[in-house]
């Protein structure tokens, strides 16, 4: 007798059913101020370990729904890491092939995870960074006809957060959220959440974390004008706060050692920005995105003390 026959009333769910509805937890140690609450949304709890699961699923599933692609087709995408892992997972679940292009200085954990899900991974010159990876992915699109999702310009990236992340934050704060903070990479998270929350309450402040000039923080970018994501709309962000590499690294370590939240450096940048905002408030409910899990950075120096 099979599992379903033995448990006729049990609802069987797929891994996709567990994307989203991530925990929203209150910071206990890194920030305390009467009248102000700092809440951290733990996106590492998604099946693929990051906030990018939401966008990856939405981009592939919507392309299938519109019949732009079909099962068995090959897709290509440039990534700095988390989106690639999410796409590798979702491609496998949804029945398409995934080719991922990323800079050769990506942590080995990321590369191995993508390959474990069955994706082909192409490494490009670290000197060219994510821009070089984007150019190579576009070349494969032209030369081999691979379908390119183009997370940087794809409206389904931001729509994933309009449909899920924003509503979850509104629901879990019972509509009390006053400030929302996210690291700005593709900008899909901040665009989608801003669109939803501003519809609920136009006074909610949307703040983006961006690296200072010269800072290298995986998952956060300050894009040159020619590479600025097409989905980005500056009018949807009330304030941008720049963080240094050292600040982001220190906060990432503090999240682990003081809050028990094991995350990557972009999360440190997001939370640090949220604390800078919260410290200036008399009252408020501040929500920050914790983008991913820290285990994919263990081969780097992220958790090494200076």
TrEMBL record:
It is an enzyme of class 2 (transferase). Pyridoxal 5'-phosphate binds at residues 82, 185-189, 266. One of its GO terms (molecular function) is cysteine synthase activity. Residues 17-292 form the Tryptophan synthase beta chain-like PALP domain. The keyword ATP-binding does not apply. Pathway: Amino-acid biosynthesis; L-cysteine biosynthesis; L-cysteine from L-serine: step 2/2. This is Cysteine synthase. It catalyses: O-acetyl-L-serine + hydrogen sulfide = L-cysteine + acetate. Transmembrane segments: none annotated. Signal peptide: none annotated. Belongs to the cysteine synthase/cystathionine beta-synthase family. GO terms for biological process: cysteine biosynthetic process from serine. Its cofactor is pyridoxal 5'-phosphate. Pfam families: PALP. It comes from Polaribacter irgensii 23-P.
């Amino acid at each position: 007798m099979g599992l379903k026959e033995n448990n006729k009333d049990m609802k069987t769910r797929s891994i996709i059913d567990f994307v989203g509805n991530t925990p929203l937890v209150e910071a206990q140690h890194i920030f305390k101020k009467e009248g102000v609450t700092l809440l951290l949304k733990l996106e590492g709890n998604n099946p693929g370990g990051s906030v990018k699961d939401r966008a990856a699923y939405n981009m592939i599933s919507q392309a299938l729904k519109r019949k732009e692609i079909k099962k068995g087709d090959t897709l290509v995408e440039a990534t700095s890491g988390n989106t690639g892992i999410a796409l590798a997972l979702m491609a496998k679940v949804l029945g398409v092939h995934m080719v991922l292009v990323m800079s050769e200085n990506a942590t080995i954990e990321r590369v191995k995870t993508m390959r474990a899900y069955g994706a082909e991974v192409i490494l490009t010159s670290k000197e060219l960074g994510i821009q070089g990876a984007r150019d190579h992915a576009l070349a494969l699109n032209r030369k081999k006809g691979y379908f390119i999702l183009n997370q940087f310009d794809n409206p389904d990236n931001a729509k994933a957060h309009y449909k899920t992340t924003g509503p979850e934050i509104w629901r879990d704060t019972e509509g009390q959220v006053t400030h929302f903070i996210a690291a700005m990479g593709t900008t899909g998270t901040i665009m989608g959440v801003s669109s939803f929350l501003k519809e609920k309450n136009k006074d909610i402040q949307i703040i983006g974390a961006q690296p200072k000039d010269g800072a290298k923080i995986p998952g956060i970018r300050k894009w040159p004008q020619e590479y600025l994501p097409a989905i980005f709309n500056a009018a949807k962000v009330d304030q941008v706060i720049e963080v240094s590499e050292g600040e982001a690294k220190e906060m990432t370590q503090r999240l682990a050692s003081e809050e028990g939240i094991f995350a990557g450096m972009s999360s440190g940048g997001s939370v640090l920005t949220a604390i800078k905002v919260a410290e200036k408030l008399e009252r408020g409910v501040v929500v920050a995105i914790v983008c991913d899990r820290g285990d994919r950075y263990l081969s780097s120096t992220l958790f090494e003390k200076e």
